[in-house]
Amino acid sequence: MNSCSRLTVDSVLQVYKPLLLGQAASAHQTSVGDIRGHFFLAMMRLFVLCLAVVSTAAGFQLRGQNELCSTVECRAGRECVVTGSVASCECVTSCPDRYAPVCGSDGNTYDTHCVLHRHACISVSTVRYSIAYLD
Question: Which residue ranges does UniProt annotate as crossing the membrane (predicted)?
Fold first, then answer.
């Protein structure tokens, strides 16, 4: 296996299986230090392979979520969430930490538009707003 060949689980196991099983890689006896060195290299390559597989899978998941959500338009206070292969709008879980107060038609003052719309989403009610002016 040259350094430019594609690294796969099968290729790693084929090359390093004898070392992983404690067998000599060639007809002559290999020292314990050599076996440990080869074992370490095998584990590092396997780690890199696993990392590549996991990061690729995460990339596909994010790309799939973006594609599914690109056709969904959520109202204020909601965001697109993908469950399995279904995109739907759900109440936002948090709002940016800032203070720009708004008055709700329910008589309450909310820290931001986001907080007002999140409250309306969670309570399944309609709350309109106007800008709150501080004296």
Answer: 39-60
